Amino acid sequence: MQLPFKQSLIILSMLALFYSCTGKQPETIRIAVLYGPSAVSFLPMMENDTVMDGKKIEITILKEPQQVQALMMQGKTDFAILPTLMAANLYNKGVEYQMLACPVWGTLYILTNDTIHTLQGLKGRTISVLGQGATPDVLLRRVLDENGIINTKPDYTFTTHAEIAQALLMHKTSIAVVSEPIVSNLMSKDSTIHIVAKLTCEDKVNSADRDLFVQTAFLVSKRFSANNKSLVAKISKSYAASCASCNEQPENTAKLMLKYKLATDLAVAQRSLPLCNIHYVEASAINDKVFRFLTIFYQFNPKCLGNKMPDPGFVYR
Q: Whole-angstrom Cα distance, residue 251 to residue 37?
């Protein structure tokens, strides 16, 4: 019985080597995206490009970054969208996904249902924010520090975007960090909810750092890109066109937001699009910005990146 078993192992090994060398392409191209501006940026692509080189494109919209992260760690998605900070952290931990592009450039806002209208009004207050050590948390604390706003306490009680939104509506919290398109939806439901400030990572004294908020990373797995370079290029081109369409055809995009349940009101959807800040830029073209952005977090709290900066291989070339 030993010989056939060994022969089987040899045959299986040869088959695995054959498919690896021939670059056998997958029947389904899997893309995991996040609810919010990232999902909005994919809507035209979801409508128009459902097949690529005879392969079905399967785009899954997930509510929370942790769900996308789980698929990446299990190798169950070929492309993914994550906050750039989280993507770099995973890369440092050996999860082999590289950054193809930045499609979303800063959509985080401090909202309140109180009478606060300036950052100084936040002194001594509690602010609901998602994820200790995550992008919203670090940027909030950085902005507070830079503006000398003391005795302000971040509150991590609410663990999802939906929970924070509901808490603001129900007045269970009075100040929170929220992203688009939730921002516009909240303000349409409650006239007392308004924007105090936009969170940014730009240095106040250096205007050259404008548009440094490389908030979102479009990622590809090394496993996929190794044998499918032409498909990576085609998917990237299609997604870039999708992002451009969001800005060039806002009325159509707003209708798609209703269709895919990313908004409940057409007018609100149209108002939210400019705040989504969608603009596809290849990561290799902004390599310096990507690493300057990550350096801000590393200098503020090295643990955000797993106590080290990612190596240059984090950016796909």
A: 16
DSSP assigned state of 206: -
- C-alpha to C-alpha distance for 281 and 279, rounded to whole angstroms: 6
Query: What topology is assigned to 25-105+212-314 in CATH?
Result: D-Maltodextrin-Binding Protein; domain 2 (3.40.190)
Kindly indicate the confidence band of residue 14, based on its pLDDT and cuts at 50, 70 and 90.
very low
Mean pLDDT, the chain, integer: 87
The verdict on pTM exceeding 0.70 is yes
| N-term to C-term CA, the chain | 49
Asked if 101 contacts 235 with a C-beta cutoff of 8 angstroms, the reply is no
25-105+212-314 shares its CATH topology with 108-199:
yes
Query: How far apart are alpha carbons 212 and 188 in whole angstroms?
Result: 29
User: How remote is the C-alpha of 54 from its chain's centroid?
Assistant: 28
The string of pLDDT tens digits covering residues 61-110 is 998 899 999 999 999 999 999 999 999 999 999 999 999 999 999 889 99
61: which strand partners? Answer: 33
Amino acid found at 280? Y
d(CA 207, CA 44): 33
CATH architecture of 108-199: 3-Layer(aba) Sandwich (3.40)
What six digits make up the tokens of 135?
């992008």
* Backbone phi and psi for residue 315, each to the nearest 5 degrees, phi listed first: -90, 125
Instruction: Write down the domain spans for the chain.
Output: 25-105+212-314, 108-199
Q: Residue 109: what are its φ and ψ, rounded to 5°? A: -135, 145
Would you say 98 and 315 are in contact if contact means Cβ atoms under 8 Å apart? yes
8 three-state secondary structure: helix
